[in-house]
Amino acid sequence: MNAYDEIARDIDQYIAEHLKEACDLSDWIWAHPELGLEEHKASEALSNALRKTGFQVEHPYAGYPTAFNAEYINQSDSPTVCYLAQYDALPEIGHGCGHNMCGAISVLAAGALRSVMEKRHIRGRVRVVGTPAEETTGEKVPMTEAGLFNGCDLVTMAHAETGKTFIDFESLAVDPFDFTFTGAAAHAAASPWDGRNALNGLQLFFHAIDMLRQHIRPEARIHGIVTEGGTAPNIVPARATARVLIRAPWRTQLNSITEKVLDCARGAALATQTEVTWRTAGNQMDNLLRNKTAESMLQEIMEDEIGEPTNNAPALSGSTDMGAISWRCPTTELMISISDTFIAPHTVEFADASRGTKAWIALEKAARGIARAGLRTLLDEDLRQRMKEDIVRAKQEAL
Q1: Is 80 exceeded by the pLDDT of residue 265?
Q2: How far apart are CA 129 and CA 150, in angstroms?
Q3: Regarding the domain with residue range 3-171+287-398, which homologous superfamily does it belong to in the CATH classification?
Q4: What is the Cα–Cα distance from 345 to 169, expressed in whole angstroms?
Q5: Which of 44, 136, 162, 358 has the most CB atoms around its CB within 10 Å?
Q6: Quick one: pLDDT band at residue 113, thresholds 50, 70, 90?
Q7: Would the pLDDT of 137 be above 80?
């Protein structure tokens, strides 16, 4: 047995001893769902768990009442592994994306890595960063822009998935916008000619988007809802609003499509003699920049050491604020299966699957996997260099 295997065995022992605490933490967060930027109980529970594990914890963090940063440093100016925690829930559904598990897995993995670093005198720095509002505003984006992840040699986390486990995860870049069309009110029967119908402008905008879809790549997505369409049927609407999400596989593609959507809004306003304004509705998110070296490392760990088969990721669909980090630091995300069959995310059924025996088994496997990924990163300077080179290579391919 080589040195890595001995240390990995210590990681497994720590996780076995503290697994019930992590499962209890996950289930407690599940039972107390909180929306994005309101995750006061969850962030406090995770922060307290990390303090008990021996981390120095700053909570609140970086101006966010529900963010936190936990650190353990064994020699300054040493390699850094950062685990992410998500813990926001969905309206009415609760934890229909399994975020109750994300933070608990990272706490358990980071605690295991910290334990072996102390026991085996391994130099390095371990962080756990709590990131609010992944489901809504995506606060990892401004946190990244503020430099809060600078210097990390690996940023990783585990997320609940159903039907299969995979690592080659990709996401769509997204631009979220709120549009407001403004016209002039008038009586819809007595003097409609005196009005300028803001709802007509908004409807024409949506029709223009429908026609635009023929001329964009099939992987791109444009979808939205009317959030305000008038106040009464006998009044020409002076105001109409919508929220629209624009997605594409790459930021460079998205920038072009977004400009075309804005042209649709401008043209619709011109045609209906209304005015249109827009603003971003949350943070604009980049696509996740895949790090093949980090992915291969984690895949090898999951299959050869943990005994968890991995599969190819499904087709591109959603977006994540983790994309912002991936363009600056080596980043990978483990999507760990919590059920034998596929369950649509953001549903009550997915929420039900994110607790119970199968979820606990997945939590244990995921913690062992990303803890070992952190260990390899700290021990292997060549691995760290190759992961950094992967970012440069992937950026060049994206141009």
Answers
A1: yes
A2: 13
A3: Zn peptidases (3.40.630.10)
A4: 15
A5: 162
A6: very high
A7: yes
Domain 173-280 has CATH 3.30.70.360: yes
- Per-residue confidence (pLDDT) for residue 315, from 0 to 100: 78
Alpha helices in the chain (DSSP H): 3-31, 40-53, 99-120, 140-145, 198-212, 251-272, 292-300, 322-326, 348-353, 357-379, 381-398
Instruction: Please say whether the beta carbons of 88 and 67 come within 8 A.
Output: no
- Structural domain spans, the chain: 3-171+287-398, 173-280
pLDDT above 70 for 36:
yes
DSSP for 303-319, written as a single string = IIII----B--------
Q: Is omega for the bond preceding 314 within 30 degrees of 0, making it cis?
A: no
Q: What are the DSSP calls for 115-159, one per residue?
A: HHHHHHT--EEEEEEE---TTTT-THHHHHHTTTTTT-SEEEEEE
Contacts of 53 (CB under 8 A, 6+ apart): 107, 110, 111, 114
Residue 181's DSSP bridge partners are 240, 276
Q: How large a percentage of the chain has pLDDT more than 90?
A: 95
Does pLDDT of 107 surpass 80? Answer: yes
Picking from 47, 36, 94, 42, the residue whose alpha carbon sits closest to that of residue 70 is 47
Q: Residue 2 in contact with residue 376, Cβ under 8 Å?
A: no
CA atoms of 249 and 287, how far apart (whole Å)? 6
Q: What is the pTM of this model?
A: 0.94
Average pLDDT over all residues of the chain: 97
Structure tokens at 182: 């403004």
Q: In sequence order, what are the residues at sequence separation of 6 or more whose Cβ sits closer than 8 angstroms to the Cβ of residue 263?
A: none
Q: Quickly state the pLDDT bin for 136 (edges 50, 70, 90).
A: very high
Tokens of 194: 């005196």
| 8 Å CB contact between 36 and 132 | yes
Q: What is the pLDDT of residue 1?
A: 63
CA dist list (Å): 334 to 121, 166, 371: 27, 7, 12
Say how many residues make up the chain.
Answer: 399
- Residue 169: per-residue pLDDT: 86
